[in-house]
Fold these 4 entries.
Entry 1:
Amino acid sequence: AEQVNGSTVVQFYLRALLARGEPGDNASRSAMFDASDLETGEVRSLFVTPLMTEICHRFGLSEEAKLLGIDTLPASGNGGDDIFVDISTHSGVTTRRAEILEEVSALSVYLTSQERAVVATVVATCLMSFVIPQCNYLNFLQSYYLHPQHDTLPGLDERLTNATLSNHHNTSGGVFPYSGARMRSLVAEDDGFTTAAFHNFLAQGFVPYLSSGLLYPKSKDDEDDDLCDKLMLQADSDLLQILALCICPTYPLGLEDAVAGPSKDIRLLAESNIPLAFQLTYTDRLRIIEACGSLVMLESDAGPYTVVEVPTGDREELIAATLNHFRASLFGFVSYHSHSSSDSIMAYKTITSITITESNESAIYSVFDRLLETCLTSQSEIVVNSVGEDLAELISRHNASRYYADGCFTRYALGSIGRIMSEIVDNNTSRETSVEGSDAKRRKTVQRGESVCVALLNACRPLFYFLLDEGTDEMNVTELEAKEKLIKDLHKFLLHPTFEVVTVAAKCLALALSYSSDRLSRKENVRHLFKVTRRALDSLVSSDKIIALKPLITTASIQSATYANSLFSFAMTTYALNKGWAFLVQWIASACPAISAKRVSEADNDITGKTQLAFLVTCSSHAEDVHVNRCKALVDQIDRGDWDLYKLTRLAFVSGGFHVAVHIIQRLLPRASRQNSFLWLNSLLNIARAEDGLRSGPKEVSSSLEFLSSSFCTLTSLASTHAASCGNNQFDFQLDFVRKRIELLQLISVARALYREIEIAGGNLSSRSKHFLNNIGKSF
């Protein structure tokens, strides 16, 4: 939104935000709905400035706003008296904290660095007021502004301790009157600190704020304010540290000996008594983890903004330490607090969803290793499968967040997963026999091993997206060796006794082959792949699970005609009496139609009429005329079996053999026994004629449009008849499909006409033609 059209996006978001129709003050803001082309200046004057005025007044920051140079409007009232009250006892309408954050998130692209700094301190204070209600939140909020220029803020533990101790000396303003009251239901009056209010704050205001990219924002090039950068950095770090302590009071491994810097502060904070003051239930922690899954952090090495370093040079160190603390708390929650597999899965997904922005790549290695260890050691099959997906997501997000894949992490992940998969392959044959104990225990162990295989294979797939090409100078020998070893292991996984493992291995190997198109140009590789495929077929066809090998067979047949020919012959001779081989030949035919049509025609005596017809229909879009004529002759030989012919029609539509489909439907039409059947077949016939005509080139577009229009009218009649008899319309998709096909062909006709006019007129187009030309791309 920031880079494309922020004004329109904000209007749309706020239109949905304020569409609740709340009375009072919010009703006056509905005037923004009447604006259609608001510029940045108008948005700031109409919405940003009033909102910041309200925030500064209600949170008692009017003087601080002047210090930072924030423009505010005159405000009435005392301010600061009910800044944290969610339901007003005065006018009946008060903008709650959740609504304030929601509006701030919607207007985030229009905020200056000074305004973002104030918002960051307010958000951290709001969260703290919920989790430590006995703390003096006014004291905590003002602590950000007590060291305006050069002094460093005290640590978070010291400021929280001071704010809590101030309860003993201050009995008015900013002090919650009783500790722990949020944990019980308040029937008479909701003072804003109940559990329901906290969950609403998280869902309505905190989630939009985290997802708006305001956490650790990039300073714009024309803004250079060290004080604001300090405030934003400290407030955002405080926010993440408070969230980490809410989730689990722990600190990352390796900080036991930290004696200075942010790492020491985090260790002291986790070891202090501050977490004991948190008023949180297990459900509250789950809601916080769920909200943190929406956290969006803009990468520091991309985009139109550049990071303005804090003069002390501690920015990157503080951000890295804080994020490590936050991730460690999520891992700690899984280890010490999680009550179920679903809760652990949510925590792992939150870890994965946080983009790793640290310049030091140790963070990605640490998270990857922890997830990989969980995948290998977890006793829950559900958790293992989920962590496998998380590993794949982590690999994709990390590499996609950079301009290019540098290959370092890819090689590391490839080597780590490859070594584990090699051990699994080597131990696969002896795993079941080596397990001692009852049959139930052995089955459970083997099942867990299978789930680990599936998870690791799923994690392998995105690695092939980011492997460097073999011809580049940057191609590392280690990466090449790991890649080759992984592909060999994938061949071995095709022989695994479990259908799920074979399915994922076939998909992964097909992807590897598609990114190494020259691999099957070598005969030894083709020979090896064919041998493995043949052995896999021996174990799968008998149980009707040949579908697991479809991606691999299709991809390999496209790349190697030798492989397709060999597999075709093998299927014809070995599985002639088994229906599984029919799928094989159809998949090969979809990849190599010309070769397959020739081979089928050569085997007339070995194949029944209907089976041969199915193969010829699959190949008909690229087959020679003699094969097409043979196909039509086989259709004429089928006197009965209308359902078989209809299925062949469907196959012809899928494979592009519309000329064969026309021939089959013409045979079926006279046999239609009901009106609806006749109308349906007639609409299909017109679609097939239209698509068959397009095979001759764009000159047939006009005739194809006539056939499609006729089909649309027939479908409309069929829909009306069906609706009258059954009371519902089940042809919406068909009507929409044909309508869009008609519109596409009409656009093609307009484009061809414009091209001819340009050729003749030499660019001197009429105003109508210019209008078409300007909109043709958008219309397509």
Entry 2:
Amino acid sequence: MRTYGHWREWRGDKRKTEKNLRGLRMRALLLLIVAQTAHGFGTGRPRAVRGRLERTRTPARLRMSPDDEAQRLREKANQLRIEAEKARLSVGVKKIDELEKELRDLKSNEEDAGRLEVLKGRVEDLVRKSVTADVADEMLGSLAAFSSSPDSDAQPVAASPGQGKVLSEEEMKTALALVETLPVPVKDTLARSVGYPSFDSIIQLEEFIENLNSKQDTTAERLRKLYYEAFARNLPGGVEGGQDDAEEIIGMLATAMEESSTGRAMELFPRQVQENEEGIPTEDDAQVVFQVLAEGSTCFSASEKPQKVGGGYIIKGTYKETSNSSDLIDAIDGKIGKISQTWKNKFQVSLVEIYSDDDTQLFQDALFISPNKFPVMAPKALSVAVTAIALFSSVVYCIDCFAENTVVMERLKDAAQIGQNGGGQVDLSWFNELLIPMLLVLGAAQALHEAAHYTMAWTKQVKLSAPTILPSQALPYLSFQNRLKTSPRDYASLFDIAFVGPFVGLTFSFLALYYGLQLTLTVDSSTAQLFPSLPVGFLTQSALGGTLVDTVLGGGDGIILNQDPTTQVPLHPVAVAGFLGMIVHALDLVPVGSTDGGRMSQAVLGRVWHLTFSSIVFFSILVATFTTDSDSLLGFLFIYSFTQRDLEVPCRNEIEKADLPRALTAFICWVLAALIIVPIR
């Protein structure tokens, strides 16, 4: 039985417990009021907090011991405090973000200085009421509006989004969604590019996106290097216990990346440029050009620093088409000449197009820094040997044109027999009178061809290498090959140098053919029986040439060409030389590689599209060799594959293509060449 003392002790404990409970309830209510105030003074309270507040207004009945009830209320009050703190901070951060965005917009407009200061005050007051003083100083220092404020001593801890275009809410959502879809190495690469150790270390993705948006000086090369490092570190097993292997993988990938990048940039240039190791500019030489561009007085905007490639350096960027692109080259040359005349005497800058690393565009503008002279890669001894073989085969081919003439062959056999028997001096003047005109016409046509090249190149201040005569199996020779040792000023100059040679050679050969056909009709019978001959099958390999022969000699009714392909058609030596010369010069107009026709194609279409057009033409000729009996086309493809498949050296200005009159001229030349080398049947 309880005594009165026991009852008073129990009543005192109960009053003390109830007092403690009332204190806890008041603390919870105060916390909720703080959360309500941070959320806008009662507007839009979170539903969870509002429900708990309503439930705390009615005291719960004590259905357990006072100690247990006190413990439960303590836990509940602590939970309410934590949730209220989270709600307060969440709402505060959201309000801070909204105010900062409003601040940035207002600051960019610079229309209302008074409103700007009011907004700054609201932000600072809200931040300092939400967190401790140290945290508030750090947060205010990282805000764009406060970091640029002259009244703030805080230093920014991250790249300011204000440096670039401010992302809209929709752009931010799109960026966040895209980042989540990226592979881990790519995420790590982007994170490291803006100063984070890794992507996992990022706390605020919005801040990360803003930093990426404001980062303007990250080069493609650095991103590639960071990517391969991130790739190697995300291999199965990571780098723990295998640091050396990881570093080796990083080195291999970086080397492969560099070779791939530079190889693609120089893929459109010939080996004469890529493999040149004589007088290559150094990085300091490339920096001279980069410094000129950095002054901003030219119409070329560099997007990356000089990148080393085969044959020199590449500076990628964008050409602003505000003036003639040749003026850009002249402006750069003028500025460099003032800095160092020695540099200008050794190197040159060319405005070119290269394959783009961006999948959204095929090619991009770039400045190519290279030596101003390009050596010929083929050894001189090899060129001399090939030329000697071609000259010998040409003489043999011309002699072979008399092989089907029985009268000539009998007289040559008799002369040979007399010589073997010691019968005195053999008279071959009659044969020389037939052979020499053929050789002279062939040689004169090619000499005029080359003289036109060198004359035009001299007027354009371009140096050409000595010609190499290329042999052929179905023709006396295939072509004379020469290389450009210095760069033409522009594509118009390249076109003129390429066009004038075949034009002069074809014109001379056509006139020689027509004149020789007239001589064939007018000579006496005793001379005609000594003429060389060409088979009908060979004449039909040229639609234009064969038709001209049939028209002059047979009246154009097909009397000549409709004969058996093995039938020999006697022609004057000048006519034979003219017919062969037409085919040789027409093959030189075929728009593939670095032939004269290929140079014209490159001048009209540019490097990228010339490569495509050249491939189509090559494939078409290859198909024609299977569908027609044309030995000359097959021999052309064979020799071309070894000697002229590269493109030409860079012009100083490759942005401006050849004009419309030159393009029409090129088209006419290609049609004419097709009529000459395409068989009739």
Entry 3:
Amino acid sequence: MPSVMPSLVMATLAMCAFLARPTSALDDKQVLSHFYSNADGPNWTRGWDTDEDDVCSESYPGVSCDSNGRVSEIDLVDNNLSGSISPHVYTLKGLTRIDVSKNRITNAGWNRIEVVENMGNSVSDSIEVIKLTDNLVNSVEGLGKLNASLKELHMTYNNLKGTMPSEFFELPKLEVLAMSENALDGTIDTRIGKMDSLLELYCYGNKITGTIPGEIGELNKIQLVTFAENQLTGPLPDEIRHMGNLRTFSVHNNDAGTGSHTGPLPKFDRHPFLNEIYLDGNAFTGTIPVDFLRRLNTTNDDAITVGLKNNQLTGTVPESFLKFKNLQLDVTGNSISGFGGDMCDEQDSRDISSWMGGKVELFGCDAILCPDGYYTDTGRQESEDVKCKVCDAGTDGKMGATDCESDTVTTSEELQILAEFYLALGGKKWDEGSGWEEMSDIENPADVTLPTFTDNGVDGCKFQGVSCQDGSVVGISLPNNGLEGIVPDSFWTLPKLAEVDLSGNEVQLDRDYGFGNIGDAKSLVKADLSSNDIQSFNGIGAATSLKELYLDDSYFFGPMADELFDLTGLRVLHMQFSGVKGSIPEKLGQLQEMKNLNLYGNEMVGSIPAVIGELPILWHLDLSENDFTGELPVAAFAKLKKLAKFHIHQTGRGGAG
């Protein structure tokens, strides 16, 4: 009997050769059909009729064509796209711009461009702008394939993680790179200096650490840079002086847990166009240089914004600022002691009446800083109704005070409570404890009432993380600070305590790892207790004044308890990766003030109930990475007129969503 093996081998080789052979390039109609299918076209808000051959017709809303009848732009902003972008779209020869912002795209398709090329298609060299703002993309692998033409890449509000992707440095023509509000970490790659076509760089709100490298000074064309709200530290590099085309520079750190730049305030004296500079919330020291913004072009009336709020600056506002005609200056939260020269003299011929949006004309220099011995909530006079008020206790020679603190905490009882808090949570081992060291030698909280404390003017309002108003503690913020132990019940009796952030520590609130006596804090409106040892909802229902509650990375491992829904004033409930199980309770409908509900990464099951539609002002809802099943309650979602962001993506989880 003759062998069949040779014939079988030949047939197999022939089939492989057939499958591997290049295919002809797809036409625009075929490409858009792929795009429609990959991005869940049937569920789009404004869909396409892919049976229509003319892609330039009204059957393809959001598609624009050039004079040759080729697709030139795709604009599908906020159109309920999900899934992935077909890599074929990057072969459209006339395409210059694609905008799919505000959707639920998880894969931009760049990682499959090579597959399309192997099928006989070539990448377009006309694509200049890609906008993916507010999607769910977590990788830019393959993006370098668009290096021939890409000028703008917008990826703010996505799921990028890790260090800055190397693909960004493979785009020599890139002029705008927006990667704000992702989860990028690590340090800034020194290759950033080689992106010499950059005009605008947005990297706001990530987790980037280290210092800004000197190589950034090689970006001599750049006009806008923001690395604000990251975890950067150290001085700004001297090389910034070489960025002579800067219009806007921002490294402010106003959010808790962000970084803090240090050292003397740079002069920025070689920047003729730098009209906006935001350095707020850092730890810059010394005086404001007299030649600060020396070369700034002041021949026109363009507004100039200088944000220096909440640093450690001293001295006066320099007289050299008088050259600015229209200045918005924020130097509150420093130790500024006056104004240079006769800046605030009504007889001075150099007019600053247009400063602060014209408020200096109305309120004099109080519109910039309240005088020493006076205060407002903002540190300056904002209106006729909000004038700088006398502080009988004085403001330590500082202008622009935002509160009026007594020489010591208003009562010895509050100072005693802080002492008990310090002792119970291992204060001597805290990572940062400026001011608290006054208590390092005490063994008993009652000792703080002795003359050694009261007579020496120990001021709890100056302790690290403590904020006060009129001498009473209103806030405690000690995130990621090495606190460990059980929060004493007395802590919640601070009469004006409004905000607490103890996230990222190892604390318990007691009541069997529940919320202890949190209900005793009658003024508490915001609590961030994420990443602590909280395992039960016991006691939370008594905290009826709460408006914002953050419980990410907790250990509930059970359903949401009924008492959670007694917090009828709650506007924000954040419970990512908190071990929550069970279904969404019907009592959710009691939270009529809810605006932001985040239950990402739990183990919740069942269908999404129609009661979700009973939250009239819900703006942001994230139910992703759970085990929900069944269909979405479409009628319920139609009632959510304020809903701007809804996420329910699944990655490797069992639920169908």
Entry 4:
Amino acid sequence: SDFALEEGRLGHTATSNPPLLRHRMMEQPSRSKLPEDRPRRCTDCLFLLAFLGALGAVGYAAVYASKNGDLARVLYGQDYMADLCGQDNSIEATGLPEFIEPRDDELTLFEKLHPGARISSRPPSSRVRRGMRDHTSRSVLYFTLPAGELGGFAPVAVCLDECPGDHPDPDLHAIDRPGTWVCTGKYASGPPPECPDGGGDLPQCVAYRNAYFLRAGAAAAAACADPLQDCDVCFPPYPTTRVLQMCLPQQDATLAAMADVVAAVAVLGATVGTSGNPDYAASAYEGLEGGSGDGSTELSPQDMDELRRLISSLPHMAVEDLSVAWPVLAGCSAVALLVGFAWLLLIRFLAGLMVWITLFGLAAADGVLCWWLWTRQQAMKADVRYGEEGDFTSQADAAYISFFVFVSLGAIYVLLVLCFRKQIQLAARALAVAALAVGQLPALLILPLASASLAIGALCGGGMLLLLLASCGEIAYGRPGFGSLYLDSRTEYLLLVAIVVSIWLVVFVRHTQHAAVGGAVTKWYLHRNTDRSATRCCGGSAVALGLWHALRYHAGSIAAGSLLITTLKLIRIAFFLLKRTFYQRVSRGLDACGCNGSNRLAAMCLCCISCCLKCVEKSLEALSRYAYAQMMRSKRSFCPSAAEAVRLLTTNLAGAASLRFVAAAFLFLGKLLVAAGCAFLGWRILVQGPP
């Protein structure tokens, strides 16, 4: 909703200064020279042909991917025996021999996207032995140890039919329950038939219990790491959540289970290498004081946080947090949407008053913050811990310094408001006109929602095409996990084309929205007193006409503007990849020249270049909005419209700059008020719940 309001303000500004525009109209000797009386013709047809050609290339890539791709290669993971989960890996089904010589003369797709993983993911042997198992009913990939190496064993990737803990009654503490262990080799299907629960004194049952990873020994660990051997080892399950075809650690239960595992390793570390009895796990649990059934009672909050970070990577933690907090996030988003529409409605009737209320409210908020910082630092300095505890003392000093910082910022802010009060009044009137446009053309609010839906659809379609193209590659056997595929040069080029065109299509959709809104608001603003047709059907006629004109006559100009922004985005993406590669080389002790040590000057230059590219992209995006509004009024192509927009802006530089700055600041403050209020509400709900 606030985007439609901002577009209304942009349409008001981009159609030039209203008094200047009326003065020019009065000076025209004939109405035939007015832009409104020119016939509308197709513009920038070459760019439209290029855009259609790009879409055709994407269509070819889709046909190629549908014929040669297999989503199972990217959707299903590879286990420790080079078998794909969810697939029949027998020789008859795959046509592959038992032993495979993997290719190591080029990088896989995963390695090209993650340069830091190029060394660690290399197979340790020139040959790989396939397990040739039928995993049709085992579709999810599970790593036996979420916290890395433990007890001499590295995490082993196995295929399961369901994730441990992905059922109503998960067994959280199964170290002493052999029937629930996750095993490899001949025990992959579970305990021997003679002892379904893993107990008993039969030799095969004792052998099964001795396969527990804390008793298996170094030979079993080496066999699991050798791509030419299989291993018969069992691990205790930890609670997980299924995300697509992978089992991710479950936040609310994995900490306690892993604390038990670590405690068992500590207790049994001196005895597991010798004989010992089969009930070692149960006796170990009886020896643990205060943590046998909980695992978290002996851990401080800092230990819990460190253990959680050890268990989960950043994407895992994001999924875990969303699984817990999504109801609160959804509720806060709905509240933010409703408050945003209410804020827009208030602007419709009280635009000028709300501008001043927002500006003075921000000054009042700064004053309240300064008062809180002053009282806080006084209380902390009066505390006995001040000067004794380093963290407490630094916090008190930080509050003291922050008080003077915010006092200075508040004083500068008040002076700016007083100095630019006339420009603020002008901005308030412009916002009132923009709010009037949104009030008389409420159909404008549909365009942002429609364009966002189309953009999301384009992104989803592009993502599916990328998956299909990636699945055209050859599987890199011997590298457990996902994404280990070799791609030929043709597929890589098609991947690049799909990425470029997907970004171009998303930007094209957004720019079509800008042009349609600019055309509708321009028509309403210039003819609001003489032609009432623009407000028919809640402004739907003007919006539909603007959208029709944008696509029928100016699709080429929109393609040109969107191609310019897409090119800048691609440059920024390429530069981001270059910067990430540089930082990874520095983290390994190599600078950009291959010398030892880090290069701070190069890192500083990279940050400056990244900031400049971002500024150029944002400036051209803002200019393109003005250019589309001018294009819809003058009925000319993109470049002349952009040049005219630049000329009008430079002619009225001071007024346009102050107007845009004040209006943009007001819109930003409104967004900040709504977002911060809803975020604070969600934060209070989350922190009051159980950890």
